[in-house]
Structures are given as C-alpha cells and as structure tokens.
C-alpha cells in the first residue's frame, strides 16, 4: 500500500475494525489470497458492504451468501460455482475478509 499502513488484522486476516477498510486495503487482502480483483469481484464486494450496512452483519453462511447474491444480482451471479471461482475456498469467508467485514458466523 503506497504510503499508508495496512490496518490491523486478526490471525485469519479479517480487519480488526471494519471502518478501516478502503478499496486499497481490499486489493492487498485479495493479493494475500492470490486473487487479483476485477469488476466481477468488486460487484460482490460492493454487494457485501451494502448487505453489512443494512443488516449489521456479514451473511452468516455460504448458503445465505449465495441466496442473497442471487436475490440482489440474479441467478447468473448467485450460484456457488460462480462465487467459488471468484473467491476460492469458502466464498463467503474469503469475500467478507476482502470486503473488510467481520467473519461470517457459521463459516468454517
């Protein structure tokens, strides 16, 4: 990060304070996961940040994450395979970490 300090993160890479998030921070966190963000990633990150503002929580599970994306962005984006390709591993957990949100409660 050019000229700025990376905000504090916990042992799983989640920000200690969600208010410290910036798009630049997201890029660094994604790079730590081997992900180069593109417009498809940013669409999901923006969705998650809006979800968090509205519900004061991250989607609590992958299933609810997929369902919420489907309701907001349509069937093409709201499916596990699409989200897993963007955010490998556990998509809800990986996407929330990059979006600067707290760890989803039911994610392994």
Summarize this, please?
The chain is 50% helix and 0% strand.
**Category by helix and strand content:** mainly alpha
pLDDT < 50 runs, ≥5 residues: none
Helix content: 40-55%
- The number of helical elements comes to 5
Rg on CA atoms, Å = 13 Å
Specify the CATH class of one domain.
Mainly Alpha
| Global outline | globular
| Average predicted confidence as pLDDT | 91
β content, as a range?
under 5%
* Counted beta strands: 0
Main attributes of the structure:
mainly alpha; 108 residues; globular; 0% strand; Arc Repressor Mutant, subunit A; 50% helix
Tell me about this structure.
The chain is globular. It has helices at residues 23-32, 39-55, 62-73, 80-86, 91-98. It is 50% helix and 0% strand. The chain has a domain at 39-108: Arc Repressor Mutant, subunit A (Orthogonal Bundle), CATH 1.10.10.370.
């Amino acid at each position: 990060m050019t000229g700025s300090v990376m905000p504090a993160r916990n042992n799983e890479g989640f920000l200690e304070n969600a208010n410290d998030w910036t798009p630049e921070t997201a890029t660094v966190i994604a790079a730590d996961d081997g992900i180069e963000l593109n417009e498809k990633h940013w669409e999901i990150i923006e969705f998650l940040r809006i979800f968090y503002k509205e519900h004061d929580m991250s989607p609590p599970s992958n299933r609810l994450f997929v369902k919420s994306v489907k309701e907001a962005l349509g069937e093409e984006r709201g499916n596990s395979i699409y989200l897993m390709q963007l955010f490998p591993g556990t998509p809800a957990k990986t996407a929330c970490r990059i979006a600067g949100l707290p760890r989803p409660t039911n994610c392994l």
